[in-house]
Design a protein that fits this description.
14 strands, 13 helices, 386 residues
Amino acid sequence: MWISEGIALGERCAWIGPYHKRTRTGFDHVAKAFSGLQKQGLVRVLSGNDMRIEMPGTGGVLECFSGDSPQAIYGEAFDRVFCDEATRMGPVVLPAVLSTITATKGKARFAFNLDQGRRHWAVQGFLNAKAGLDPDHGHVFLRTIDSPYVEPETIEIMRRSLPERVFNALYLGEIQEDGAGVFHNLETIQNGELGTPEVGHHYVIGQDLARKSDYSVSIVLDVLTKHVVGFTRTHGEPWETQFDRIAELAKYWNDALVIPDATGIGDVAIAGLQARGVRMKPVLVTTGRDLNPMTVNVPKGMLIQHLMVQVEQRAFTYPASLEVLTEELKSFEYDTTNAGTITYAAGPGANDDTVFALALATWGARHAYVAPMTWIQAAYRRRGGF
């Protein structure tokens, strides 16, 4: 409404989202506000890549930018600038925005969740405004828990299913010292080393299959000790090579139960591993209906939240020597959509293949039934038997 008001008053306005798709969401909201005037020919809406709104009668205009390309913001002059999801943007955005309102003595507004930690430039700006350190800066603080647009039942569900620190950040607006990272205190679950198969032990392999430039990651979890005992990470392997390696790995680990992520390549992965006699329970990491009787449908959020709880409860351990796993866990973050739902993904420029392989392994160890195995059966299978 603030931006729409500026356009109507003949001012030059800018909308900045953290990335192109999110910028378009904001642009669509503003364009909808002017739909009636557009039909009357009083407003021009350019909805292509430029995302521009012009009101010739007043001279008002809206231009849109993406926070991941801050250099494009420089050189402009605006009366009003709005930054959506400012905590998803790097610190270089702030000087870029300020440079556009200096000559016009314009105003800038920043909207964001308080989930990135007090060291983030946007959160720090909020705290400075709240403390009254600059008379030109103001602030508005609204808690999600008080919103009339969020059902109380939804809040209670999220209170029960989310770790306390995540709920407090997203629903109570409490600033967390360590930001929007999902996994914390990893040193408490780091222990031991990788190992070799033991007679009478059952193993689960969480398998994240490689797609294009991704890594193929296999994480072996001992069902009895809940310790990560095996780890492989490869890149650039053809599908058939991946399937061969996984089959050999499963055989080596006492005919381990493989939990592969079959999302997107379900039939190919299932057929390839089936043909090699792999004992498995494929997982579709989606929210749609599971149409394949071989697979289990697990929403991505549920899978990650299960791993979050496992980490918090120290329900498993892994070797500190797996530095790539530690780094990916540290960089994994949560975010919220316009609808208020929580999404999970690797931080900018980071990978998450090992995170999902670990999530599949811990989920499989807890939810998948593994038939008891005698030491005779285990020894026989190690020698290539049934």
